[in-house]
Amino acid sequence: MGVSGALGSADPADPFDIESAAVVVTDADQLIVSWSPGAERLIGYPARDVVGHPVASVMADGNLATAVSGLRRTDRGWAGVLAARHRAGHAVDLSIRMCPLVGADGHHGWLVVACDVKDRLEYEFFDAVARGLLVRSPLGIAVLDTELRWKWANRALAEMEGGRPDDAEAPGTITGGGEPAFLGNRHARRALITGEPQVTLDHAPPRHGLARRTRERSFRLRSFFPVRDAEGETLGICLVALHATGQDTARDRLTLLNEASEHIGTTLDLDRTVQELAEVVVPRIADFVAIDLLDEVRREGRKEGQRPRGPGQGEATLHRAAHLSIQEDHPEVVVQIGAATRYPARSPQERCLATGKPIREVVSAATPWLVDDSQRWTRLLRLGVHTHLVVPLRARGITMGVVTLLRWKNPDPFDEDDLLLVEELVARAAVCVDNARRFARQHQAALTLQTSLLPPDLPRHNAVEVAYRYLPADTEAGVGGDWFDVIPLSGARVALVVGDVVGHGLHAAASMGRLRAAVQTLADLDLPPDELLTHVDDLVMRLSDEAEAAAQGSVVVGATCVYAVYDPVTRTIVVARAGHPSPAIAHLSEPVEFPDIPAGPPLGLGGLPFESAEITVEEGSVIALYTDGLIEASDRDVDVGMERLCFTLAHPDRPLEELCDIMVRTLLPERPRDDVAFLIARTHALSPDRVVSWDVPADPSAVHVARNNAARQLAQWGLEEVAFTTELIVSELVTNAIKHAYGPIRLRLIHESALICEVSDASHTSPHLRGARITDEGGRGLFLVAQVAQRWGTRHTSDGKTIWTEQQLPDGT
């Protein structure tokens, strides 16, 4: 007979469940008033045959008093076994629970719940087995919720995990209120995610490490499987653990190596990697470990191709990277973490560095190299250190440091098996250390490249006051492609730009530099924001095609950008965006606004149009442009990020640098998961008395009038020193407009940090600077303008074009 046959059921249900049990209700006269389907199944009588009849009619001997006398009194009623008469005529032994019912008239009736005695005995047996397994079994059993937090654990599991056995059967107390030892165990998480059982074998460290082959070894077998309710919904994870001992040294070592492969190298952080190696070694193998790295390994920002010094390459400088002891006060430590480490000339560490081979030696008061180092001699002998093991930290043919292990509490000296084990552990850790070193170098190179491509300092401009922050992501993905810029434009205007290249690393930084240069070049052409983004979109598509052709598809795959042009004369800002968050505008007298700018597709998709929107802003408003890393840092909840951004900009009258600091503190965690760049600008308006314009008739005689108007205005501004050159510029530009273009023609002068002269017409044809021959009667006007003006150019508009010049003003004006 199999197991299921012996138990009757693999998982018996509660026999007193009212959905399946026999439920009978009687009145004060012992007449049956209710009869459940379960009663019909159990005794055979349908309700119509028994309701209204005395309950004694279904008793085996027909005597209710005799039947009830055999029941025992409980806290709330009676319980026991009595015999009922089945409709077929045979007796049925029933397990009974009954309690009194009180009616409105004060008379008592009865509620009776019954089941087959065999079902009750089977369930009680199953319940006893389950309780014994959960509470008294040597198997450790616990239940964790879907966030892997303790919900319940038995005494055995609490003792295995170092908790308090007295509290082990209460939820959440297995480790005395601390974190579970395996909270981050990938097997538990895998069982939760996949729904499949997971089994792992862990090594439980003995009191004195792994050296002695005859000492008993401890193992811990853990099984994780999901716990589900009746509907199949996962409630959490059940853990079953078995603690066993044995003398299988080979399995001990394999188990430790397996744990080391999971524990060492979890990040690309150099300091964390060496600390992980120390945590694996102590106390399982050694009582103390010190890890010293060559100074060149820890130094950041080396030139590409420079490599750490290998054996026999001259004197090396070591720095303490990590150490760990079985004693909290670290009495054996001579050098603190981060400090330079100096060992005597004949020490095992110096010999290990010189030869690249491990050294194992017995320590005594007469050890020659130790005699030359009184400080170490005193500390090691006072502790009773008896064995010294030094292993080179070496990977890919490069020695990067040394690992020193000591024993004193463990009475067994390091043997050959220990040496082989430590060499394997250190070799694995060395690869991780080298990976971390290489990553740090590449990360620093990418950061240096990106920093060099970003503006070292933003230009000062009368139209806006600006401040910015760039914060690279503190992740292993490397720096990203976020950038920002402030570009002076003609007509006292200024362009504000923030963009983000998809991806991280050197390619993203290089691509960012190319896009930033393209935006600056296109901005010099004075293109409207939507047209500028169209040209940048074409550039990103070409770069992506080039990358794909070169089998480097990750170089540029897309980007986002927002481009805004602010005009201090009209006090408007024109914005276009390509898959980028809309800027925020903090008005002085209204709530912070996220204007409805047409989104536009990300750069690199092609074929879709971009649109601009014009917004009027009052003087003193703050405009914030940012990458998505700023508002998505709040657990990736964009709505929360935008609310926090509104909060930080709620007082736009604060200094901009202070606003930047508040934005960093409020919106960003200590270690951002993505690059963040943002640019904030406070708008200034140009006073109306600094701008003047005239309509110019399309008549050659109007040139003289325009020249005289300009001269009079310069006199009002106190700029007589530049009157001659300005009259020359006005004369040539107005003449060209009358001669080669068509009206309406308009002349405008702007007195800002420079004197700006603009002549607008309705023609879309741009003038070109050329050299006139000696025999030419004309063609020298634009050449003369270029000689006397500091800058000049053409700006196209929907109504035509504008030729503009800028002249440097005398000091004090």
Describe the fold and architecture.
The protein has 813 residues and is an alpha+beta fold. It has 22 helices and 31 strands. The protein has a 6-stranded antiparallel beta sheet. The chain has a 6-stranded antiparallel beta sheet with strand order 14-13-12-17-16-15, with helices on both faces. Strands 8-7-11-10-9 form a 5-stranded antiparallel beta sheet. The longest helix has 38 residues, at 416-453. Residues 1-9, 164-184, 207-215, 300-315 and 772-778 have low confidence and may be disordered.
The Cα radius of gyration reads 43 Å
Give the overall shape, derived from the CA principal axes.
flat
Average pLDDT metric: 81
Helix-strand makeup class: alpha+beta
Q: What's the main sheet like?
A: 6 strands, antiparallel
| Overall strand count | 31
Number of helices: 22
